[in-house]
Amino acid sequence: APTTGTLSINMPGSTVSVEGNYNKVVAQAAEKTIVSEGSALSSLELQKGNVEIYGNVTDMTLADGCKVELYAVSDNATFLKAANLASENRCEKIVLGEDIECTSDINIAGELDLNNKSLTMSQTDMTVKSGNSFSVSNGAINSTMNMSHYSVMSVEENGSLLLEDVYFESTGVPVYPSGDASSVTIRNSTITGGAYAVTTNASERHSLTITLENSAFSALSPILMNVPGTLNMKNCTVSGQMHGVIVRGGSATVED
Questions:
Q1: What is the CA radius of gyration of the chain?
Q2: Of 246, 200, 202, nearest in space to 220 by CA
Q3: What 3-state class would DSSP assign to 4?
Q4: CB-based contacts of 86: which residues, under 8 Å, 6+ apart?
Q5: Residue 198 and residue 191: Cα distance in Å, rounded?
Q6: Which residues 6+ apart lie within 8 Å of 64 measured at CB?
Q7: pLDDT tens for residues 81-108?
Q8: CA 52 to CA 25: how far, in whole Å?
Q9: Closest by alpha carbon to 39, among 4, 15, 67, 69?
Q10: Spatial contact of 195 and 174, defined as CB atoms under 8 Å apart
Q11: 3-state secondary structure of 80
């Protein structure tokens, strides 16, 4: 479709769907703006309300109080753009439309729906910064790291990570809660690592919580808990080449 000029939206309290190609869209007043699949906007200026993005937006400006409720991404550049917004708590949910290779280290928050697709990471990592929450569901993460003890996903102070229905394989350490009062929950997933699948670090004497349910873990030593805190495992399978579950600190409850 041909690209047209500027579209201005002034419909207070309404949900407006944008279809087609535009040089610029200015949402002056709308409850929600939806950029439809197949649409292409060179510029989106959101002055009021929120947005869901299923098409392509090259440049975007969000006024204070505005946010992206859902960002459908199909390439690395768009994924990184969405992740940056999420790390600032300005994007609630990212949904993969295609398999993607992430080429940069990123800070992340909000929700990532893998949508039965794969996210590939090569020598790159994700960090849930202090006070943020991040959840991943419904797909696969494949990671390669130069060293078997390098972490892929780390969680800082008061941060939380949830993995649900995820196949996560790495030559490094898939999950590392690193900060005080951080928490990790893994449900209905398969986690395969190098040195560890899930680990803590005794040099950082933080108190944290790890909850593992209905999941399978494999690595040289799949689970290492060596800091103050709580490890809860229920109905999990652990396959280690050197050890299974190592508890050197805190308390652990293993059921079924």
A1: 20
A2: 246
A3: strand
A4: 92, 94, 108, 109, 110
A5: 8
A6: none
A7: 999 999 999 999 999 999 999 999 999 9
A8: 14
A9: 4
A10: no
A11: helix
Q: How far apart are CA 91 and CA 152, in angstroms?
A: 22
The Cα–Cα gap between 46 and 8 comes to 10
pTM of the model: 0.94
Amino acid identity at 170: S
- Distant-in-sequence, close-in-space partners of 77: CB < 8 Å, separation ≥ 6: none
**CA–centroid distance for 157 within its chain:** 17
pLDDT 10s digits, 126-161 = 999 999 999 999 999 999 999 999 999 999 999 999
Which DSSP symbol is given to 224?
A: E
Residue in this structure with the two tokens 């799949």, named with its chain if needed: 222
Cα 151 to Cα 13, 14, 23, 148, distances in angstroms:
45, 44, 42, 8
